[in-house]
Design a protein that fits this description.
alpha/beta, Ubiquitin-like (UB roll), six-stranded mixed β-sheet, two-stranded parallel ribbon, 2 helices, 8 strands, 12% helix, CXorf65-like
């Protein structure tokens, strides 16, 4: 039960999704050198946001519940606005527009299998 996560300057990490959501996100933060306080999530190659950052019990829920094995995902940073400000998403895969031109400038919608959440502008 593995997935491939793309980030950085065309880096890839193969990870086992038979783990807790919290363990997966902590591992990915360490690998991509994010700050511990950063909020990260995954985007599938069709542009669907996996909404791992919205899982109510990340320390107990399995990542395999939200992610499909053998799929490729793009690591993103979630930047939540204050109060009524919008939530922004920043690709942690450098040059996203070169790798996935169809995703550049798109709004990333929450996965249908996860909780509903509004999306807005995206920084690429």
């Amino acid at each position: 039960m593995f997935i491939t996560v793309r980030y950085g300057a065309d880096c890839q990490e193969i990870v086992n999704v038979h783990c807790r959501v919290l363990s997966l996100t902590m591992h990915l933060k360490k690998k991509c050198q994010c700050r511990p306080e950063d909020c990260i999530d995954l985007l599938d190659e069709s542009g669907t946001l996996m909404n791992l950052s919205e899982v109510k019990s990340p320390a107990s829920e399995l990542a395999s519940k939200y992610l499909q094995e053998r799929q490729r995902y793009i690591l993103i940073r979630v930047i939540r606005g204050e109060g009524s400000e919008s939530t922004y998403y920043e690709s942690l895969l450098e040059n996203l527009e070169n790798h996935h031109p169809e995703l550049a400038g798109e709004s990333w919608a929450p996965s249908a299998s996860n909780h509903h959440r509004e999306t807005s502008d995206i920084d690429v």
